[in-house]
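> forwarded from #structure-qc
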């Protein structure tokens, strides 16, 4: 059963849909949660014992790693508190902005709380599992415990790079941050492109099965995908010995941006969206079921898509009519069944890559 398509994001108007009393209460509550997140963030910023924990939480968020294993010796509880605060700071401003610009009815808040859309329900469920720290258990089940090994290996890689003098230092924090951002977005682009190949598409289909965009669509992913993405996204943190506040700053920007481009705000940002950062309208094209836009606008900065031939002009987003993957077996309301099916399909694809057993030479009767 497919979820109904929301009204096209580029044709919404705030004047036609003003929040009522109940909506105002929800927005007030959201703003209070945002203030709580800001308070926690300030604590993580100015209290030394919290600072490293905040950076570790951000590294885990950016690499999609579960927080079951601490990478800096901090308690899991401290990492979880940091994670909740960082997510509040990255998500709530985007959702409040969306409600103000697009109107309440088409906002992520309204569609996530209504419970009428299977697609939006998937987004909310997966985000809740992430926020509550339960996603790591789902990942462990689907990877048969392999995510523990992946987390340990990526953490060890960071340590080994430091031990063998592989850390890069320019002598300037600003330059280090800029280079780390370039490297992160480069690895993020190729990680994303990797999942759009035939071999790994089954593990990315769940993300693209969304028939409507909400700010929480970012967290809609197959449980096995983080184990693969981690090997791409660990390098910026392994090669650059960045100050904790720099890691947190980069992370907040990237997370807020990623939530924005998955929102219902149809900005295309003019020349800035064509040459600097892929805008929300450009990412709608990426999620379109139009074959002309398959595998387009994969990156964060537009430069990577332009260099590697995957850029599509965001001004063409007005032609986007439908989102999703044209697959009746998605958004069925049985998320666990869909996840297992995608995993089995991926494993079968890997199995087919193995050479067929046989004999290299013809054997004689005396052999």
């Amino acid at each position: 059963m497919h979820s109904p398509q929301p009204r096209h994001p580029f044709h919404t108007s705030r004047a036609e849909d003003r929040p009522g009393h109940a909506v105002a209460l929800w927005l007030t509550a959201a703003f209070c949660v945002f203030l709580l997140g800001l308070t926690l963030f300030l604590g993580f910023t100015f209290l030394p014992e919290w600072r490293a924990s905040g950076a570790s939480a951000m590294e885990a968020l950016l690499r999609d790693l579960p927080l079951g294993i601490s990478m800096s010796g901090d308690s899991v509880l401290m990492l979880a508190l940091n994670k909740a605060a960082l997510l509040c700071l990255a998500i709530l401003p985007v959702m409040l902005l969306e409600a103000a610009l697009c109107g309440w009815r088409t906002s992520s808040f309204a569609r996530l709380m209504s419970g009428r859309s299977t697609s939006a329900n998937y987004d909310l469920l997966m985000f809740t599992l992430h926020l509550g720290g339960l996603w790591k258990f789902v990942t462990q089940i689907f990877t048969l415990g392999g995510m523990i090994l992946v987390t340990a290996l990526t953490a060890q890689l960071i340590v080994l790079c430091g031990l063998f003098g592989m850390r890069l230092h320019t002598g300037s924090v600003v330059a280090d941050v800029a280079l780390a951002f370039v490297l992160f977005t480069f690895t993020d682009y190729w990680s994303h492109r990797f999942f759009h190949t035939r071999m790994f598409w089954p593990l990315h289909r769940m993300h693209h099965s969304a028939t409507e965009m909400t700010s929480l669509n970012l967290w809609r992913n197959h449980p096995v995908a983080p184990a693969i993405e981690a090997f791409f996204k660990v390098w910026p943190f392994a090669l650059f010995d960045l100050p904790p506040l720099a890691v947190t700053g980069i992370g907040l920007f990237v997370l807020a941006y990623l939530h924005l481009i998955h929102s219902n705000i149809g900005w295309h940002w003019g020349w800035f969206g064509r040459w600097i950062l892929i805008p929300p309208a450009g990412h709608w094209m990426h999620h379109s079921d139009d074959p002309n836009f398959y595998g387009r606008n994969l990156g964060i900065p537009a430069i990577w898509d332009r260099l590697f031939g995957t850029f599509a002009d965001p001004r063409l987003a007005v032609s986007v009519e439908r989102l999703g993957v044209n697959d009746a077996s998605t958004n069925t309301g049985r998320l666990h069944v869909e996840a297992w099916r995608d995993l089995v399909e991926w494993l079968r694809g890997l199995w087919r890559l193995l050479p067929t057993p046989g004999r290299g030479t013809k054997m004689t009767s005396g052999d």
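QC bot note: Residues 9-265+320-350 form one domain. DSSP finds 16 helices and no strands in the chain.
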